[in-house]
Amino acid sequence: MLNVFLKSESGAVTTDFVVLTAGVVGLGLATVGVVSTGLENTSGDIEATLSGTGVNSSFARQGYFDDFENGAGGWVGAITDASDGWFGGILGPYSGSGGAEIVSRTYDLLAGYDYAVVEFDLHAIDSWDGEQFVMFVNGEPITTQSFQWGTNGTTGSWTTDNGAYEVTVEPNGDRTALGYNPGWDDQSFSVRVEAADPGDQMTIGFGSTLNQDVYDESWGIDNVGVTSTNDPGSV
């Protein structure tokens, strides 16, 4: 009987199938181990970028919003920080850049709209001594705002005479010790820029003329919104 069993081939297919299946499963597990880390990193990058992008349900305009609670998305030269309880997640803090653009993001805008409206919170942090915060559009400075640690509001400003841009800066409250270095007062501002005929893309950037360490004087950006619209008053 043993001799007959050894010569029989009736169970060979089942045996081969089990071995082949085990090999396929093993290959699948090995593949998952190799690619899982890369896929997780890629999915995180996609989430960070798309989290600041949205299209409203009416499709009347396209909007972007960055609150920097989950990273910097598509910002180039970005640093973010969420260590201070009052400020929360911000783009920054940055010290001086010699007045040059140090961080920027390019936004795709919808065609056929007459305006792009840019809104954001600007934080003038700690011991400003009349230095300038600079905002850029498409690589060109369109406004500077100066601040003084012991004085409310701006202490000097310049806005381009290019009629394509309308800039407003409003304090969000009085100057007081908000966060970071408790020995110096801070102030937060709401900045709004209306840009006429912006084209299909617009690059927003920032810099400053601060000249001391970031722990002594700095600036940060939060809640950046960009909207394509034909009616700036509706934004």
Give the strand tally.
Answer: 13
Strand content: 35-45%
Q: How many separate helices?
A: 2
CATH topology of the largest domain: Jelly Rolls
CATH superfamily of the largest domain: Galactose-binding domain-like
Description:
The protein is α+β, with helices and mostly antiparallel strands and 235 residues long. The protein has two domains: 2-49; 56-234, Sandwich (Jelly Rolls), CATH 2.60.120.260. 19% of the residues lie in helices and 40% in strands. The protein is built from two helices and 13 strands, in the order ααβββββββββββββ. It has helices at residues 2-7, 12-50; strands at 53-55, 62-66, 80-81, 90-94, 103-108, 115-126, 129-137, 140-148, 156-159, 165-171, 187-196, 201-208, 217-229. The strands form two sheets. Strands 1, 2, 3, 4, 6, 10, 11 and 13 form an eight-stranded antiparallel beta sheet that branches. Strands 5-12-7-8-9 form a five-stranded antiparallel beta sheet, with no helix packed on it. A hairpin with a 7-residue loop joins β8 and β9. The radius of gyration is 28 Å and the shape is globular. The N and C termini lie far apart (90 Å). 28% of the residues are buried.
